[in-house]
Amino acid sequence: MRFIAEGFKRKLTATEIEDGLSHMFSRNIEVNEQTATTTAVVQQQSENELKHYTEQLQIALKQMSNTMQIIADQKEEITELRKYVADVERKQQEQQIYIKTKLEDRDQKLMESLREIQEVKKEIASSKEKKKQGFFSKWFS
Fold this sequence. Notes:
It is a single chain. The chain contains four helices and no strands. The chain starts with a helix and ends with a helix. It has helices at 2-9, 14-24, 36-132, 135-140. Helices cover 87% and strands 0% of the residues. By secondary structure, the protein is mainly alpha-helical. α1 runs antiparallel to α2. It has one domain. The mean pLDDT is 83.
C-alpha cells in the first residue's frame, strides 16, 4: 500500500505502479488485457492530472498577474521619485546660484568699504603731515 501511495505522490501512472508492484511481488498470472476498470482508472487519473495542472496554471497566472501589478506600482513610484529628485536638484542649483550671488555682492561691498577706509586713512595721514609742517611752510611752499 505504501508503494502505491508513494507512486501517486510521485504522479506515476497506474501502469507504472503496477509494474513496480510486479517487481516487488511475484505474480502467477500476467494480465495484458485492459479491463473496463483499468480503463476507467486511467481515464480518471488523466482527468485528475488535467484538473491538477489546470489549477496549477491558474495559480501561476494569478501570481504572475500580482507580480506584474507590483512591478507597475514600483515603476510608478520610481517615476515619482525621479521627479522628486529632479525638483530637489533644481532647488539646490537655485540655492547655489543665490549663495554665489550674495557672496559676490558681499565681497564687492567689502572691497569698496576697504578702499574707502584706505582713502580716509591716506587723507588723515596727509592732513597730519600738513599739520606737522610749520605755519610758515604752508605760506612759503
